[in-house]
Each structure stands twice: as structure tokens, then as C-alpha cells.
Amino acid sequence: MGLKALCEDIVAKGEVGPEDVLALRREVFGEITVTQNEVEALFVIDEGAQRQSKEWREFFLEALTDWLVRQQEPVDYVTEAQADWLIARIMADRRLRDGTENELVVRVLELADAAPASLAAFGLSLVTRAVVENDGIISADEVARLRRLVFAPSGPGRLAVSREEAEALFDLNDATRGAANDPSWTDFFMRAVANAVTASAGWVAPGREEALRRERWLADLDDGVFREMEERFGQRPSPNEIVGSAAYAARVMAWGLQQPRAEHVFSDRLAETRRAAATSAPVDQGEARWLVDRIGRDGDFDDNERALIAFLKEIAPTTDDALRPLIDRLAD
Questions:
Q1: Residue 255, Cβ neighbours under 10 Å: how many?
Q2: How many CA atoms lie within 13 A of 33 on its CB side?
């Protein structure tokens, strides 16, 4: 049975079970790579099958992340076109599918080295929408997903929280004020927003064009890494030498680490990490004014905002004077 027939059969019965997933795996991964037609078919199944097994959810996420993150050039980079396609595809029927589509956005951001900021913003909007449209209460699972989103390596703030993400968290806090949110929400909210005003993002993945250039340099047998190896050793390695000689491999690795490109990759990352550590404590004037405006925007202060200010007083003793009156008022 081909993929089209499998898809029609599953949608007709309204259920996708373990046996269906096994058959789908054979079809989708039978030729190693996943195609866009196969991806579209999987979305049709996800939208049409109301009863879904855990095997289906894992297969859906595996196939989609593989196609979006691993099979594009350069590997681990999500393009604007891909992000736009994914957002449009998820929003096509206006329904929230927490275990598959919502989780897919989070996993893509976790696995990719770089992704458009629009995708991270979309992920946050999905969680916010799920909270508001369900019971208006933030659960522990939703807090865990938010944590994964804002600290995803490919998000706008990477391992730090961006201003846009902090704004979204404030909006969610305002929308659920007075609700019986899980206690983990207060802790996450105060730490995430504090991170946005005290932390630096650190190392940033190289841009897509630079990543493509590096991949092509490694793959170019005529004018890339192999030409430089020939200049260094006096001859090009044969395929048998590359595959079968541990000594040759060790020599190549030692050579590679001596190249300027290799040094720059690690030194740039180290320099950014050191810069992040050196700039991670004080709250400057711009951050202080934004925080004062954002907390006081609705004219009220809730327990989560008070916890945030108390936490900032503890971890950032050096703050701009604009924030001092708010600390004196709310932190005690």
C-alpha cells in the first residue's frame, strides 16, 4: 500500500495506531530522506485522525524535524521560507494540536543552530493561545514548554531571553492574573524576565551564507580542504587512506586544528562567552526604563512581578537609578 492509500485509509477510520506508524515509517524512511509530499501527507493524517497513538506523535515529530532541520542546506539552519511555510501550515485549519504541531515548533528551535525570530514568536503565541483557550490556567507542562522555547539555542535570545520574549511572558502573566497557575510559573517568570535584563546572549551561530561556505569548503575535492591538505603533505589522500588509516586521520585532525579557520571558530565562541559573563549583572538605563514601564503598564502589581523585583535586587545589586524606586517599593 502506497503513502497516498495509507493516508486515505487512516483518515477514513479516524485513528492512527502503532501498526499504521510502522507502515508509514517504511514508506517515508524507505528512501532515507523525507520529501515535501510526504511531509504534507503527514500533516493531513495529523489533522484527520482524531485518535492518535504515542507512536504517531513521535514519528510525526521525527520526520518533520528531520526534513526541516537536517535535510536542508546548510544543515541545522531553518530559513525564512521554511519558517513561513511551517507557520502557515500549522495555522491552516486554526486548530491547536498540542502533542504534535505545537511540540514540533519547540523541537525545531531546540535542534536548529539558527532559526528566524518569527518562528520563536509563533511558538510562544501557540502556548499563550493554548492557555487562554483551554482553562486560563498555566500548567506545569506549559511552563516546561515555555522554558524550552525561550532558552532554545536557535531562538532570538539563544541561551538568553530576548526583549520580545519577555514582553510575551508579561502578556501571559497579565492574561492569567488571579488564576490558580502552577507554582513553577512564578519561578520561571521571574527568572526569565530577569535574564532578559541582566544576561547577554553569548556566542551566535554563523549566518546561513557563512555556514554554506564552510560546508562547501569541506566538500570541495578540488579547491577546498583537500587542496590545503595537498599543500601541507605534498599529496592528496586517497579514499582508502581516509577511511582505513587511523594514523592518517590523526594527522589530518592535528592539521585541521592548526588552521586559521578552526582557531577562529573556537576563539570567537570563547570570546563571546567571556563577553557574556562580563556583561551579565548590571541593569542599564534602557533595561530599567523598559522594566518600570512594563510592570506599571496596567497600574497594578501582582505577586509574580513583586517576586521578579525581589529577585533582581538579589542578583543585580548594580542597577540604574530609574529602577531604584520600584525596588524600594516592591522588593520588601
A1: 15
A2: 8
